[in-house]
Amino acid sequence: MPDAVKVGFVPFSTAPRGILVVFCDDALKFGRTASKALGAAAGIVKRAAAASRFKGKSAATLDILAPEGLKVDRLVVIGTGKPSALKDSDFLKFGGILSGKIRGDNQTVTVIAELPSATMSPDQSASLAAGIRLRAYTFDRYKTKKKDDDVTSRADISIAVGDVAAAKAAFSPDNHIVDGVIIARDLVNEPPNVLYPEEFARRASRLRKVGVDIDILDVKAMTKLGMGALLGVGQGSARPSRTVIMRWNGGKKGEPPVAFVGKGVCFDTGGISIKSAGGMEEMKGDMGGAACVVGLMHALAARKAKVNAVGAIGLVENMPDGNAQRPGDIVTSMSGQTIEIINTDAEGRLVLADLLWYVGQKFKPKFMVDLATLTGAIMVALGTEHAGLFSNNDQLSERLAKVGSETGERVWRMPLGSEYDKLIDSQFADMKNTGGRYGGSITAAQFLQRFVDDTPWAHLDIAGTAMGAPKTDINQSWGSGFGVRLLDRLVAEYYETRR
After folding, report:
1. What is the pLDDT of residue 1?
2. Residue 120 near residue 168, CB atoms below 8 Å
3. Residues with Cβ < 8 Å from 53, sequence gap 6 or more?
4. Using the 8-state DSSP alphabet, how is residue 108 labeled?
5. pLDDT tens-digit readout, 115-148
6. Which pLDDT belongs to residue 499?
């Protein structure tokens, strides 16, 4: 789906057209270029600010139609707050707010990327542009008749900067990361009759265009490997399961890769342990973890990340036909460990169990991070503001928490322990696939930990953040693409080769 906006960089000397966007601080001060562009209209801004009680607080906006003395249709002023309180992460938000102020089709917008005290740095300008693109995303491809509120605003946005070449260079990697987020959002938003395991695998294979090596394992190949846990989930569906292995080799030859594993339940009825009808349509998003991994692998490859990376996604449908898995069944995972099925709606951990084992044994990665819309329990614990983080490695956890704070894709570490582990012991098999009502997100993580051996590992439960989360300044979509920016930043800060 094409972007609703086109974003480019131009020099400060460019004459403003259409909508002019400028920034001010909490003292209503403008930068030199913005002040020059406003000219005598600065007085109008002060009067309008007083009338609307606009004080330049961070993220506050002032909108003036047909400003007298300016050859533009609208003037939008965005507050940046106290200069001492300004953070680099604010510029992504400002871009989102700016994008949200654009209404109507075929708009021309000029943004003066300048603070009252200084020109925005290339990185800040790049973040502004990324925020614009992220907020502008919509998913309306299936609407044939659109109401006025449904019309996508389309705009050509020129960001005026001090150094065009430097801004373009800074935005290049960010642009690819945004593309990855959009890929993930598109996948989560697609209806399940369109995006089933085979189609998901086909779309993931598009990453070959950016240099990612793709291997697709069909049912026969997974049976040969002994992936009984994953295959058990999909055996009730008319749509055959798939596993997709994606490899980006951007680091030193022979260097162990970093690895990302995603749950891809393209639709989850709950199986024989069927869910209630209310809200079941949202289970098309139960592949948010797999969507993130595909988006992340695109971002790493497209920006030529200097790292070796593996992405693995297990794609299944959990359906309740006559061949479906039953409560009481015992399946054998690829690791050889046996699992008693207590509840067929605790299916995502079965998919991840075989994937984690496969990736850990085959690739010997530096670490593994899995992402899954795994439990409703994590939403009870953390709501929709944080993803749950479970890990066997303190360093990896600390790094994830740090980059989560930087990107706004926040995580909160939850406990693991032998006391919880006992809750999934089975009297008939090596383990059972659910530990009961209490501590459900923890016992799910304890289950996964049995399939990682000594590999540093983190599990991100993104049930509250990948789909249906509250709208933000940079996301108005049901599918958020959560995790792409988080994990790209993790790789960029800690695991890329410095040459």
Report:
1. 47
2. no
3. none
4. E
5. 998 999 999 999 999 999 999 999 999 998 876 6
6. 53
Q: Which residue bears the tokens 């690829």?
A: 334
What is the C-alpha separation between 68 and 66, in angstroms, rounded? 6
Query: Model confidence over 141-194: pLDDT tens digits?
Result: 999 887 665 555 689 999 999 999 999 999 999 999 999 999 999 999 999 999
CA dihedral (411, 416, 420, 426) positive or negative: positive
Over 90: is that where the pLDDT of 106 sits? no
d(CA 413, CA 362): 28
Q: What is the pLDDT of residues 398-456, one digit of tens each?
A: 999 999 999 999 999 999 999 999 999 999 999 999 999 999 999 999 999 999 999 99
The mean of the pLDDT values for the chain is 95
Helices (DSSP H) in 2-52: which residue ranges?
A: 32-38, 42-52
3-class state of residue 153 by DSSP: coil
Nearest to 135 by CA among 97, 190, 109, 188: 97
Rg of the Cα atoms in the chain: 24
Q: Which two tokens stand for residue 68?
A: 């007298």
Span 341-354, average pLDDT:
98
Fill in the amino acid letter for 424. I
> Read out DSSP for 443-489?
HHHHHHHTTSTTS-EEEEE-TTTSBSPPPBTTB-SSB--TTHHHHHH
CA triplet 233, 234, 239: central angle to 5 degrees? 165
Length of the chain: 499
Cβ 301 vs Cβ 198: under 8 Å: no
What is the amino acid identity at position 66? A
CB 150 within 8 A of CB 272: no
Query: How much of the chain exceeds pLDDT 70, in percent?
Result: 98
Which ranges of 311-393 would DSSP assign to H, the alpha helix?
A: 348-363, 377-382
Give the pairing of strands 330-332 and 411-413: unpaired
Helices of type H across 156-285: 164-189, 197-204, 219-225, 228-234
Coil, helix or strand at residue 356: helix
Cα–Cα distance measured from residue 241 to residue 234, given in angstroms and rounded to the nearest whole number: 6
**Is 495 within 8 Å of 399 (Cβ atoms)?**
no
Span between the terminal Cα atoms of the chain, in Å: 36
The stretch 16-44 carries a mean pLDDT of: 94
Catalytic residues: 275, 349
Residues forming a β-bridge with 390: 459
DSSP for 261-314 reads: EEEEEEEE--TTSPPPSTTGGGGGGTTHHHHHHHHHHHHHHHTT-SSEEEEEEE
